[in-house]
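Hi R.,

As promised on Friday, here is the backbone we talked about, encoded as structure tokens. Could you run it through your design pipeline when you get a chance and send me back a sequence?
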């Protein structure tokens, strides 16, 4: 039986360009994240030291175990900072390029707006806008398909959560208009 060794490669026309300028390198991200984790560890250690890290007659005080976990986190963070600054493996590799950052922001910004709109429009209207917008702008799907899919998705979610399971979801003016 003969096997075919032909490989089909499909190019993604929206893939980031390989020559896109680097926004930030891996070394910088490693150093910043390690420094932020170190600061978090210091805050955790201080707070747990304040609540008690010793032994009482009945056992360890409330901050005993969290304090030492904070110490371990601080030590690991210092190692991360040292490794990033001294030049660990892959230190000059790009972390994100301009094209990659643009693609991430295409998802992050609408999702952030969705979270904010949920407070005023309710979760179903905000979900409708997010779903239809993603389908049309990022997926390049026809408007009528995007709108119909978003409407059906939100309708199914409304029936599932509000009617079938009676879960309290954030409501907006549209649901108030219909008495929900």
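Update: got your reply. Pasting your designed sequence below so it's all in one thread:
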């Amino acid at each position: 039986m003969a096997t075919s060794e032909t490989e089909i490669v499909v190019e993604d026309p929206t893939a980031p360009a390989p020559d896109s300028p680097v926004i930030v390198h891996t070394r910088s991200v490693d150093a910043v994240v390690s420094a932020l984790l170190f600061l978090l560890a210091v805050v955790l250690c201080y707070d747990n030291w304040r609540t008690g890290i010793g032994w009482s007659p009945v056992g360890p005080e409330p901050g005993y175990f969290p304090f030492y976990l904070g110490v371990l986190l601080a030590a690991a963070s210092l190692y991360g900072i040292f490794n990033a600054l001294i030049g660990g493996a892959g230190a000059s590799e790009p972390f994100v390029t301009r094209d990659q950052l643009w693609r991430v922001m295409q998802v992050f910004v609408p999702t952030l707006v969705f979270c904010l709109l949920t407070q005023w429009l309710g979760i179903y209207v905000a979900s409708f806008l997010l779903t239809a917008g993603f389908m049309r702008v990022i997926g390049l799907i026809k408007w009528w398909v995007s709108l119909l899919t978003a409407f059906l998705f939100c309708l199914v979610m409304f029936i599932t959560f509000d009617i079938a399971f009676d879960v309290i979801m954030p409501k907006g003016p549209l649901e108030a208009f219909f008495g929900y």
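One thing I noticed while checking it: The chain has a mean pLDDT of 91.

Thanks again,
M.
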